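Budget justification note: compute hours in this period were largely spent on complex prediction jobs such as the one shown. Inputs:
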Amino acid sequence: MKLTFSAASPFARKVRIAAIELGLIDKIEFSPVTVAPATQNEEYSRITPLKKLPVLILDNGEVILDSYVIVEYLDELAGGGKLIPSSGTLKWRVKSDHSLLQGMLDSMLLCRYEGIVRPEGLRWKAWSDDHWNRAWTGMARFEHHVEAMQARPFDIAQIGLVCVLGYADFRFPDCGWRKAYPRLDAFHQKMLERPSVKISVPPAA
Amino acid sequence: MKLTFSAASPFARKVRIAAIELGLIDKIEFSPVTVAPATQNEEYSRITPLKKLPVLILDNGEVILDSYVIVEYLDELAGGGKLIPSSGTLKWRVKSDHSLLQGMLDSMLLCRYEGIVRPEGLRWKAWSDDHWNRAWTGMARFEHHVEAMQARPFDIAQIGLVCVLGYADFRFPDCGWRKAYPRLDAFHQKMLERPSVKISVPPAA
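Corresponding output:
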């Protein structure tokens, strides 16, 4: 199977970490793709009209998206219940934590597009402030329960949090999350001991 | 349990249709919430930092998000495998179709924010063209396989498609999707025979 990939995409990073943790990384061919908002990529749009990374292309041609469903798919391939608990209260907590982190990443990408990609005269501060606030108050939420989260077996929500924090370092290096959220800093340092997390840190911007 | 809700939200509509189809609608109290980009709502941000609709608040206070995970939760509550196949190839097709439709809705909302909510002098045509193109070519994708989709038992992807088309009528009434995609038009008319779909049509804009 093939994964469309960019080392700069936090969503692709999530799948890469999951694939390493699940022992499936050698079964996946990484296919580099460049996408940018407001820029066409007709070839890639034929694979996915959303023009977003990553998608997983199976050997029979079926396309699996989005990054969350890809992780679900890989998890099932690895036997199930590995990175996403298969039952109980924990299942819904992990899934909801992950959805929150996914939305935080969406907001961070919108901030990046607003602040860097959009022509300078067309930027709207209230919009980026709102989206940054979603990511920032989301981090505050995790600061309060990251220790309970870390006590769980490694799961997709922890991967999501790693990807949020790594993306903050990559695209918003001056945002000061480490100072504001010391428990997230400790979590992030601990997570970097995992080879899957360390190898997938985004390249210097 | 409580669902934060707005009749204008296509994501909240998806959950409402699912809850009716699963026979769970009477167990859910609808809690109206108004959110808008670039506008604070501190009270709601305390419930979900993403400030998005809908979330499901369980009786024990746990918050389930996003709309997809809420439908998964309700589906399991109803016995499992009702609106999301629980195994097989179909499971991944339904989930991937749903993810595509979810991304199409995200893009349509971004178009709406760009074209209506953002101050007029700050709009960027290449951005809204790109996002509209994602929704539009996504519709073309479904036009090609809507008949196979419709032959399946009613599922979350069909609900997602209903919500995309209903949102197109609601916010982009002149986009001409019926003329461009006659099979989607036939699908939509057929779906309107379901009480869950008919009762949840967005109000006149």
